[in-house]
Amino acid sequence: MKNFTQPINLSGGLPFARNLLATACFLVMAQAGAAGFITDAKQVSGQEVRSGEGYYRADGNWLVYQAEVAGENPFYQIYLKNLANENVQQISPGIGKTTCSWVHPSQEKVLFSSTHDDPEAKAKMVAEIEQRKSGQRRAYAWDYDEFYDIYEADFEGKNIKNLTNTKGYDAEASWSPDGKLIAFASNRRAYSEPLTEEETALFNNNPSSLIDIYIMDADGSNVKRLTHTNRYDGGPFFSPDGKRIVWRRFSENGQEAEIFTMNIDGSDQKQLTRLNKMSWAPFYHPSNQYIIFAANVEGHRNFELYVVDVDSKKEPVRVTEEEGFDGLPVFTPDGQYITWTSDRTPDKKGHLFHGKWNHEKALESLGLK
């Protein structure tokens, strides 16, 4: 386990990062969001090779995120930041790949997905390092590794427990606001259930095509499938009141995605966006009035942040204006700040950014005032 200090300073005396202080030369001023949605934006990571997808605990005192740190493992690992004293603890074992972490709302537990139980995990790490040394660059593609399982661990990265232990991609998990349920994405049925000829062909061509949203109890029991399509349904998050789930559904060709919400039993599925672009990574504002997400409306590789009201009565409104990638947005628990992942850096690699969020402007722009 690694315990070290990263240049992620979200403290300043108050739990919800009300005073973002600059830390050494790694902090870079970023442009304000479109029409002032985001102000005082700063880069808050940089010591790592790359980092992103950070999430807060309900009390605002902890931030969990994934980062690639130079060393023998070229893949992301999971880190937990204590925002009061700046200490960072590695949570994941350091073997294999990890993704999609979350902090329990009240207990000292972290949720994440990992392939560390894959017998070939170390061999795959070595192969990835050699691939990078060769100078050959592969086109970006997300890895739906069948050895991904969902784990929980304590704040020291110990007492690791496998909650899914099922062949197939189990990832993209988050606890409900009361900590009693977990929503996640999985293509497990492709490995355990009979498939039609069409489904078999789809899965062989693209393993993500059979990924659906599932829900289970926090101990991994009572697993229930919520979506039933031959498209990629993923990235689920609970609403602040715990009554609904927001997620993104890919098109049949996998080139587009739209934002949806539904009740936690899978009923009342509603489509919120119709942009015919890649809209993904949706996240509720704590007010439960609107959702923020990323979309490439401005160009294939130019992802910007947008907001849409929870009833989709108005077209989504653009939030950021910066060439490149802005995505994976989350709000601090008090809704006054926003943290997201962006490559608006000199090295063009993803890092965490943080800024003041203009809630009143968001309400006004969506006609909610």
Briefly, what CATH class?
Mainly Beta
Order of helices and strands: EEEEEEEEHEEEEHHEEEEEEEEEEEEEH
* Oligomer designation: single chain
- For the record, the CATH architecture stands as 6 Propeller
Taking Cα atoms only, what radius of gyration do you get, to the nearest Å? 19 Å
Distance between the termini: 48 Å
Q: What's the β-strand tally?
A: 25
Globally, the shape reads globular
What's the CATH topology label?
Neuraminidase
Family: Belongs to the TolB family.
InterPro entries: 6-blade_b-propeller_TolB-like, WD40
Organism: Nitrosomonas eutropha (strain DSM 101675 / C91 / Nm57)
Pfam families: PD40
Give an overview in words.
The chain is mostly beta strands. The chain has a single domain, classed as Neuraminidase (6 Propeller), CATH 2.120.10. It is 9% helix and 36% strand. Strands 1-6-5-4-3 form a 5-stranded antiparallel beta sheet, with no helix packed on it. Strands 2-25-24-23 form a 4-stranded antiparallel beta sheet, with no helix packed on it. Strand 3 and strand 4 form a beta hairpin. The longest helix has 13 residues.
Concise overview:
The protein is mainly β. Helices cover 9% and strands 36% of the residues.
Kindly list the characteristics that best describe this protein:
4 helices, four-stranded antiparallel beta sheet, mainly beta, 369 residues, 25 strands, 36% strand
Topology:
Layout: E1 3-5, E2 38-43, E3 50-56, E4 62-68, E5 77-82, E6 87-90, E7 98-103, E8 109-114, H1 121-133, E9 149-154, E10 161-162, E11 170-175, E12 181-186, H2 189-192, H3 197-205, E13 212-217, E14 224-225, E15 233-238, E16 244-250, E17 257-263, E18 270-271, E19 279-284, E20 290-295, E21 304-309, E22 317-318, E23 326-331, E24 337-342, E25 351-357, H4 359-365
Antiparallel strand pairs: 1-6, 2-25, 3-4, 4-5, 5-6, 7-8, 8-9, 9-10, 11-12, 12-13, 13-14, 15-16, 16-17, 17-18, 19-20, 20-21, 21-22, 23-24, 24-25
InterPro entries: 6-blade_b-propeller_TolB-like (IPR011042), WD40 (IPR011659)
Family: Belongs to the TolB family.
Protein name: WD40 domain protein beta Propeller
